[in-house]
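name: query_chain
kind: protein
chains: 1
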Amino acid sequence: MTPTLVRHHRHHANAATAPATGAGARARDWAEIQERMLVPLYEAAYERLEVGSSTRLLGLGCGSGLALLIAASRGARVTGVDADPERVALARERLLADAPRAGGDPEEAREAVRLYEGDSARVCGDDARAYNLVTAFEPLGCAAGDSEGLAAALESAIPLAERGSEVLLAGWGPPERCATSAVLRVASRLTETLRSGGGRGWRPALRDDLEDVASRAGLKPDGSGRVACPFGYADMDSAVRGLLSTGLFDAAVRATDPGQVEKELTEALHPHVRRDGTVWMSNVFRYLIARTP
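structure:
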């Protein structure tokens, strides 16, 4: 890991000790607590795809930009798109502020990094880059309907990529290999009544989630892999805030109330608390590499 990335991780670990308040609290909890849990997935995928100075990457659902930052540190030109304006603002702060600290030129950083709020349709017409890598790191297999949303995003993004470009899709591994699955079932149970009315609750990952999305988007599978991504938190408060920042408990909050969700989430996390008070859950994530037609 580069020195710049080490600094970012240390900052996140320290910042996570104090709860975020006010506007953008959940987005900052995501950036400072939860997003880094997927770093092993980002790094394994980039290593396999040989991401470097020749890479022109379009990141769908880029969140607060950590995956883009890692790609940029390998020399890639990166563009990110996310529907959450608070996360996009944090990504812009993180990526564009990184160049001066690393001794880079701010203008060159702005040219190498572009961020958009909304979906990939915002990129078309404003950014003439022909991408040779499209990534969707937000893991599938969590919320009912998430695969349909990704398939639609890919359909808009594929025309922006060169013919035969690589597309990276990520998803949760088998529930029996993911300790966090048992905790996420809290969301499923609490949203049972809402789901009958069309709510989007949590669901277990299915074996062919990624392949199904690739097929619907007209992509040709070209490899896959699995990566261990343990979720580790400094304490129970950080664990609750981190998991709530994923959005997977939003339907549960609507179906009940925030206090009830936090209470039951805390109870579900108790088996994963270590003697020193840290919370640890082992997980396995999948990734699928496909190619554009």
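note: Confidence is low (pLDDT under 50) at residues 1-23, 195-199.
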